[in-house]
Amino acid sequence: SLGGPLDEAFPPMSVSLLLEDDIDISRGSMLCRPNNRPHVGQDVEAMVVWMADAPLQARGKYGIKHTTQSARAMVKDFRYRLNIHTLRRETDATQLGLNEIGRVSLRTTAPLLYDEYRRCRSTGSFILTDESTNNTVGLGLIIGASE
C-alpha cells in the first residue's frame, strides 16, 4: 500500500502484491488457498432473473460480467421458468420475459472461476448484457457446473 508493507488486506483496500515467484497475474486474477479453490469452467447452470423487454431464449448470445472479468455467453439450454404465483417449474416454457425467473444452462467463451451462489455471493453471481447496447438484461445466480 502507499503507507508501506501490510500484514493483511481486506475490502475495499487497494494493494499491490510483490510475489516471490514470477507468476503472470494481473487485475482480476484470483488468489486463494489450495484447499479453497473455486470451480473453473465454461459451462454453468444458473437461475436467471430477466430484466429486458426482448425475451431470453435458448441459443441467445449475451455479454457476461462475472467478478472483474467479461466474456460472451450463449444460452445452451432453457431448463424451466419458475411460476412466481405457484412456485411450480414450467418445463414446457421456451423463454423468459420481463421480470421472469428461470433456470438455464450457459456456455461462456472464457473459463469462469466460480462458486455456487449459496456458498459465495461475489463469485457465484453474474450479470448478462445486451452485446449491442451494453445494457444489463439479466442477473444470474450460479447453481453449479452444467453437463
Explain what you see.
There is one protein chain. With 147 residues, the chain is mostly beta strands. The chain has a single domain, classed as Elongation Factor Tu (Ef-tu), domain 3. It has strands at 39-50, 56-57, 61-66, 69-82, 89-90, 95-96, 101-114, 125-129, 136-145.
Spell out the key features of this protein.
147 residues, single chain, mainly beta, Elongation Factor Tu (Ef-tu), domain 3, 9 strands, 6-stranded antiparallel beta barrel, two-stranded antiparallel sheet
Q: Which structural class do the helices and strands define?
A: mainly beta
Number of helices, where a helix is a run of at least 4 consecutive DSSP H or I residues:
0
Overall spatial form: elongated
Strand segment count: 9
Neighbour order of strands in the largest sheet: 1-7-4-3-8-9
CATH superfamily: Translation factors
Mean pLDDT across all amino acids: 92
**How far is the first residue's CA from the last residue's CA?**
43 Å
CATH architecture: Beta Barrel
Overall number of domains:
1
Q: Describe the largest sheet.
A: 6 strands, antiparallel, barrel
Radius of gyration, in Å, reads 18 Å
**What series of H and E elements makes up the topology?**
EEEEEEEEE
Strand residues, percent: over 45%
